[in-house]
Specification:
Helix content is about 25%, strand content about 30%. It has about 120 residues and is of the alpha+beta class. The termini are far apart.
């Protein structure tokens, strides 16, 4: 599904992002997901340089109960970029997006209610 510019990243359109638990599928859990997992609710957004011009955005610290594939799909559609869910040795599952998507990912996380602005750390150039 594609959204017009006015429709992008609104609470109504984010309803397609669901959180899967053992009890079935529930809606947004927000900061409660982090508390259940017993983790700090810090989300790290990093930008790495592939070469002189190309950038990669890495998002780590998202709750494990979050359906990362659906979140990735929505980010790709809203910000016209490629991406993948990657299993990192140290950080677990992380989102990898092409291009410098720091501000877009931050806006998405705040709008969707997954975290607050104070709990997002942006790293990189």
């Amino acid at each position: 599904r594609t959204f017009s510019k006015k429709q992008r990243v609104t609470r109504k359109n984010l309803n397609i992002l669901k959180i899967e638990t053992g009890d079935g599928i529930i809606g947004f859990g927000g900061a409660d997901l982090f508390k259940e997992a017993g983790e700090e609710n810090l989300v790290h957004i990093r930008v790495l340089s592939r070469n002189a011009r190309k950038k990669i955005t890495i998002v780590e610290g998202l709750p494990e109960k979050l359906n990362l594939k659906k979140a990735l799909s929505l980010l790709q559609k809203n910000y016209n970029c490629g991406g993948a869910v990657i299993e990192h040795k140290e950080y677990g599952k992380v989102l990898k997006l092409t291009g410098d998507q720091r501000e877009g990912v931050k806006k998405f996380l705040i709008t969707s209610g997954l975290t607050t602005a104070e709990n997002i750390r942006i790293h990189g150039v």
